[in-house]
DNA sequence: CCAAAAGTGTTATCCGTACACCCATGC
DNA sequence: GCATGGGTGTACGGATAACACTTTTGG
């Protein structure tokens, strides 16, 4: 019931009570959610329902009785509708002048005419003050099987969509910088954390994995050597063959071994 | 003048006003300060002046108008008396039940008889409530030239000393875990960040570097190959020779090239 | 001249890359 | 059988490791 919003309430009204939630003050979580489809690395990015093209990373706050990792899981679940997502904390963004005041003011200016009378003094509200404080943001990146995700708009979103990594829209504040850092970290960690498999369905072929590597690193790999490299990690379990009906040898399907910890 | 404390004030009195400082709430910084001397990797750790052997990592909080990195620099400077220390943020520790209540209560119990009357109700004070909140801690590790450091006790410290990495005392809360994670990160990053030189004086020999590597990784390196590896990083500038009076060839001194960014 | 330690060069080994070859599949 | 793509084995080459050799220093 708590997500039920009366139709005549304007969007800014919906922010109300942020300050009354049991959140840790001045700490936020920003998530870079990576997915993969058709030779494209993608990021799940909502767009706010206000005029002015405001894209933001999926974000949220940390409840008092919640681990920071849990909070990230919750935020991810809210946006993707899947639980137990693979995620990695990668950096804290802690500039002193890191706040949303500029972005919120611009948003209000652009949308001024459409605001309810009661929202035109938004600056006076407790929520405005809460929201435009300086925030220390903890960056997480997540890897998901794009087919399992059912993107969920928040009540503030016009849309939430997958954007190709080379077609990321300009986002508010430092969110583009956060995304860039997430991508760098993903590239750096990929062989060590053995986490690419989280971008794939449970069963996949080595060719699938190679496609993802080639996409992420924007280079090609020699098929035969790539196969060996991946199998030598010793984290895959060979399953049945995958028959596609094509006139060629059927590749084996593999599954990430349960016995290997993903994190 | 702000560090001036009246002699008759008990230590717990000195915590007062923590809550009135302009700090970000529920966010702390914990620093693992690494130094090197005589084939030993060392960590600078204060011990509180209370009975009961309370060791803690050098910690502090973030001022409202201060970058998180700056706050870490400030905390480091307070304890080492050097500015511009090399440091890396390495992880956020954000468990929901991460607070100092247990440790503070134990400290109070053990020291109860020696407390001033006015401090015996410490639990009622604003500061107690502030300090024992759940804190999200941002972990930093620092590399310093141990000879440049003049360790500074805080007003709460009985001592602040360099402990060998294999003789680290049991610390409060999760501080030993934080240290362990810092060490792991240091080992992982060392060749990529080329930061090991921060543990040495400005001028050093390749043998000095090798000693540090052997200490950090607890293994030996073949001298001739190690020399090549380090020089092939192309970040060192060869200076004059270092004559020690010993009856052997004098090694060259090197300096980290200014042109190479350390971070 | 010798011992000790630094610096350089040479050989051996390992590992990543390239590629040849064989296998399975459906027409 | 043949075209296509998957799986395995082998040969090459660059990088790293091991080690031999030379140089410097002061007694």
TrEMBL record, chains A, B:
Residues 24-187 form the Nudix hydrolase domain. It comes from the Bacteria. Pfam families: WHD_NrtR. PANTHER family: ADP-RIBOSE PYROPHOSPHATASE, SLR1690 PROTEIN. This is NUDIX domain-containing protein. It comes from Arcicella rigui.
